[in-house]
Every structure is written in C-alpha cells, then in structure tokens.
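Aggregate trends can hide what the representation actually does to any particular protein. In the encoding step, the backbone of a single protein was reduced to a row of integers, each denoting a local shape. The record that follows shows the chain in one-letter code together with its fold in token form.

***
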Amino acid sequence: MKPVTPTAADHEPVTSTWSNQNFRRLWRGSAASTLGSEVAEIALPLFALVTLSASAAEASTLRVAQFLPFLLATLPVGLLVDRFEHSRLRLMIGADLGRALLIALLPVAAWTGTAGMPMLYVVVFAAATLTVVFQVADFALLPKIVTEGQLVEANGKLAATQSAAEIGGRGVGALLIQALSAPVALLLNAVGYLISANSLSRIRLPRPHEDQPADRAPARPGLVRGITFTLCHRFVRPLLGEAATFNLFNEILMLGLLLYAVRTAHLSPLAIGAIFTAGGLGSFAGAWFGARFTARFGYGRVLLVTLAAGNSAPLGVLLADRSGSGLLALLCAIFVVMGAGIGIANVHAVSLRQAATPTELRGQVNAAYRLVSWGAIPLGAAAGGIIATQAGPFTAMATGAAGVAAATLWVAFSAVPTLRDIHDASRP
C-alpha cells in the first residue's frame, strides 16, 4: 500500500475521534446534510403523490430519476475523485451548494403554480448526480481524516448521527407536511445542504509536499483495476452482492409500502413519518452500540447475524392484510428491528470496505461498488412500479420483503463470517 500524507489524526489516540477537529467538522456537515435529506425522503414522494396527484407509474419514475445517476455517473465520478485527490473537499462543498439551489426550486415552483412531474424528474435527477459526487468523495476523504484504527468508531458515529437525523428528519418532515405542506418541508432540505457546505469549508487538511506526487492512476487502467478489485476481493465481493440485492428489492418493498399506506390503508403523513422514525430509532441504537459486540463475538459474525436479523424483519409485512387497526404498530415494529440490524451491519460493512481497499483505489473502488449497488435502485424502482400497477401494492411489498431477506445469503456463504479483526482485511 502506498504511504499517505500524515495528518493530525495520525497522532490522536485510537479511540479519540471527537478530539479530531476535522472529524468534528465533517460530522457536523454530515449531520446537517442528512437531516435535510431525510426530510426530503418523505417529502418528495408525498409531494408527488399528494401535491401533484402522481400515479403509481409516476411515483416509480420519480424513484428511477432519483437513483439513475448512481448507475450512469458513479464510475466517471470515481475517476474524477481519484484524479483530483486534494480537491475532494471542494467537490463536496460544490455538490452541497448545487443541491441546495436545485431543491429550493421545487417549493418555489409549487407556490407559483408551475410545478409538475416532468420538472420534478429533472430537478431530482440533477440533485442526485451531485449526490453521487458528494458521496464518492466523502468515502475517499474519511480515511485521510482519521487513522485506520479509528475507522470503525468514526463510521459508527457518522452512521449513528445519520440514524438520529433519520429519526428527526422524517419525523419533522411528517409534522411539516401534516401542518403546512410538502413544499415547506423541502425547504428544510435545502437549508441542510447550505449548513453542510459551511461546515465542510472549515476543514483544514495539510497541503501535499511539492516533491510528493499525488495518488493518480491513468484513467483506463485505474478504472479496470478498481472494478477488478471490487469483483474479486473475497470480502468486498459478497458485501457488494448483498448490497445490490438488498437495494433492488428494498425499492420494490418501499414503493409498495408507500402506495399501500396512502391508497389502501389511508394512513396520514404523520403516521407514515412515525413508521420511518421507528426505523431510524432502530438504526441509531444499532449504529451507536454495535461496535461493542465486535470485540466479544468477532467482526464477521456480528456483521452476518445483525444483517440476517435486519434483512429478515420485512417479512412481517406479509401480516399487513390481517393486522387491521394494528397495521401502524406492526409496521413500526418491523422497521425498529430492520433498522437495528442493518444499522450495526452497515457500520461494519463500510469500515470493512475502507480497511480492505488500498488508499490509491478507494475512489475507484467506491465508485465501482456504488455503480452496482446503487445502480440496482432505479431497476428496483421500475420493477416495483410494474408489480404495483399490475398486481397491487401488497404483492409489491411481499416480493420486496422476500428479496431483501434473501440478500443475506451473499454474506452467509462467503469468507466474511470468518473475519475476526478488521485489520486482517487489509492483508493479501
């Protein structure tokens, strides 16, 4: 592995991420950005379904537009991030500012009577493209801010904060939609991006020495090498298979759930917000306390068991038609268990990928990983729209739940459960 430029983080105690000023600034920016995004996660579909009276096919197309950039732009962005290693912060700040401007257009259009589904598709697609830039750069930046020994703790704190933002964001979003409107909720999303840009602009990384060349690889060989590493590494490959399968079927599950809740069960925006908030509570608990299980039971075992628990929980939606007035309680319970299991597993999976990937390939490997895993989301959204239209929302929910549960098999039948310590992942 090529040596990296020492940072202030290299001199911090292994467990002291809060004492790292750059990490605190990254954490604040991530918290603000995620809070706004979680508001939008509930505000965008309800904006389409309630404000614009979108059909199931139109709601499906919106999700395709929201995640298609992960299929189209991820690899080029990964190369861009690795070529301009010392401009990653500027790329992230620019992405935040661009997303704030784009999302702010939606409430303005709604209040002026010019909003429509075609405009919503374009704005969401453009904002998602900038999200690709932000997330690929973010993955490659964190290992420059903290040491390898701090990765699990740092990712745990970021994931726990994201889960807390999910709790507050979707809850606040539901309240704003119920009391005011979805356009007002979207304004909070734009404000979150602005706060994130301001916090990130305060991060100070050491300047590279003139006699130290940047970690730049030629475009074509780097691209091939990044894809090859992702598809062949014994730990990264099963994580990729699980993530892609999960994302594909989770989209079918969530689209069916939203349609079932709004059109069949007639749940209010506040009730729908409560369901997602329950998932956020589970994710927060899992992400915050998950690292404590690792030392006792082993890294790979904890990842597998928690993944199996979280991925199997959605099978409870099969009881939705029989739950009657207990539907809301059932869905909340499902999301708590799902959030807790996946919250722990995600922290371990991201840390494992970062530890296993050489420094000079992190941007490209993350790009290749997201191309496949997040590229499955628009495919799932399209499939969910077809299933919901042809067979109904309940069938879409059941299909999605079965596929999510099956995603665990990728990790179960791999080398991941044998991994005792994360440091072993970087060994050939």
Observations:
- The CA atoms of residues 39 and 172 lie 7 Å apart.
